[in-house]
Amino acid sequence: MNGITNLSPEWRNWIRENLARGCAPQSLVDDMVRNRFDPVFARAAVNGVMTNNEPVAAPFEVKPKVGTGYVYEMPRLPAGNIIRTSDRDVRVVTRVNRPMIAVLEGVLSDEECDQLIRLSADKMHRSTTVDPISGKHEVIADRSSEGTFFALNADPFITRLDRRIGEVMHWPVDHGEGLQVLHYGTGGEYKPHFDYFPPEEPGSHVQMTIGGQRVSTLVMYLNDVEEGGTTIFPEIGLEVVPKKGSAVYFEYTNSQNQLDRLTLHGGSPVTRGEKWIVTKWMRQRRYGEALSPATATS
Ligand SMILES: O=C(O)CCC(=O)C(=O)O
Ligand SMILES: [Fe+2]
C-alpha cells in the first residue's frame, strides 16, 4: 500500500484518453502501479475518472451523520458464547454493547500466527495512514510500526483465513480489504484514531470511492506482548491485552450510515518486547466493485 498517491493533471488526462480509446480500466491501474502509484489509489483514481467523480473532490453519495445519536442496531457479530466457523470454534470472552466491541479467543492457531509473521517478516514497510486533506498515504509520527499486506486469495492459506474471518465478522469476504500485518518494536504505538474515514475530511472521499465506508474491524494478535501494546478505547476506558491467536472486534457504521465515535482506539506503546497484529477492515460494499466485474481483482 505504498507509492504515489496524488494525481497530476497529466495523469488525469492520460486516464481519460485511454478510457476513451477503450482500454480496460484494470490495464490502466496496472500501468499506474508500474509507474509507482499506490495500487489502492490507482484504482480509486481510474474509477473516479470513469464515473466523472474526480477522486479528491468526489462527493460521497450519502452524507453520513457523525457522532451523537448513533443508533445501535443488532450487532453483525454472531450471538452466543462460541462462534462456529467452517474450520474453527472461536470463543467470545467479552462483549461491550455501546460501542459494539468483543474480545475473541482462538481466532487463529499458534501455527497460523507464526506462519503470518514468517510470511510478513521480509516484506515490511513503514506504516502509512491516510492524510486527512489529500487522501494520500503518508508515513506519520502517530503510527510507529511497519506493515505489509496480503491481497484476498493471495494463496490457499490466506484464503482460508479470510473465509474464517468473514464468518466471524459475519460480513462477505469480498467486502474486506486484504489482511494487513503490522509489527511494532519496543516503543512502537498507534495513537488513538478511528478506523472509519471521517466524512468531514476531504481525503476520506478518495478512500471511499471503492467499497464505501469501513464498517467493522478485527485486530488479531499474533504474539503475546511482554509489556504494554494493549489496544485502548479511551472513550470507554477499555484496554485489551494482546494474546496470541486472540482478537478484538468492533463495529462503527450502521445501516443508516451513522458512525460511532466511541470506537476511538489505538495501540498503546509497547514498553517491553514487540507486538505483531493482523487487521481486517470490512467495507459497506464489495471492495473493488466500482470497476466492472471483468476487471475487478480484489
Ligand atoms: O495495535 C493495535 O492494537 C491497534 C491497531 C489498529 O488500531 C489498526 O490497525 O487499525
Ligand atoms: Fe485502528
TrEMBL record:
Swiss-Prot/TrEMBL keywords: Dioxygenase, Iron, Metal-binding, Oxidoreductase, Vitamin C
Domain of life of the native organism: Bacteria
Swiss-Prot/TrEMBL cofactor(s): L-ascorbate
Occurrences of domain Fe2OG dioxygenase (ranges): 175-284
InterPro entries found in the cross-reference section: Oxoglu/Fe-dep_dioxygenase_dom (IPR005123), P4HA-like (IPR045054), Pro_4_hyd_alph (IPR006620), Pro_4_hyd_alph_FE2OG_OXY (IPR044862)
Alphabetical list of PROSITE patterns matching this protein: FE2OG_OXY (PS51471)
Name listed for the protein in its UniProt record: 2OG-Fe(II) oxygenase
